[in-house]
UniProtKB/TrEMBL annotation:
<dbReference type="InterPro" id="IPR029024">
    <property type="entry name" value="TerB-like"/>
</dbReference>
<protein>
    <submittedName>
        <fullName>TerB family tellurite resistance protein</fullName>
    </submittedName>
</protein>
């Protein structure tokens, strides 16, 4: 097996874990809305998630651990994706807020930094924000 194959495999595993976190967040209120389903479909395509992996991830038991990127910009990109799922219905439920904080900590933010990034994200996030704008505003 080539080293490139190992890297691709590891990258795919990280993408799958990220997709699993997105799916968990989308279903935290008991069901996946039409808007959330559309976003999950787009993320599945973007992250090269197969149909069988998609079905497996949507099962109630989520067996994929959070894998924290070393790059802080990648961590913010993962949170940005989560906020897109959260705000697909234009509001953040208390369950979603708890889950996004756990995910932020799992990504490597300490509790205080996670609170700050989440609070700032909630203030600025309107559902149609480009990642570059989000990154600029959160890092401010």
């Amino acid at each position: 097996m080539a080293i490139a194959d190992l890297y691709t495999s590891g990258e795919h595993r990280r993408n799958l874990a990220h997709f699993a976190a997105l799916a968990t967040l989308a279903s935290v209120d008991g069901e996946v809305s039409t808007e959330e389903k559309l976003l999950l479909d787009r993320f599945a395509t973007k992250l090269d998630i197969t149909q069988s992996e998609y079905k497996e991830v949507l099962k109630k038991e989520n067996k994929y651990p959070i894998e924290a990127p070393l790059d802080s910009e990648k961590r913010l990109e993962r949170l940005y994706d989560l906020f897109r799922i959260i705000y697909s219905d234009h509001e953040m439920d208390p369950e979603e807020k708890i889950l996004v904080k756990k995910y932020a900590i799992g990504l490597g933010f300490n509790g205080e930094k996670a609170d700050k990034v989440i609070e700032r994200s909630v203030q600025i996030f309107g559902g149609k924000l480009d990642f570059e704008d989000y990154l600029y505003l959160v890092k401010k």
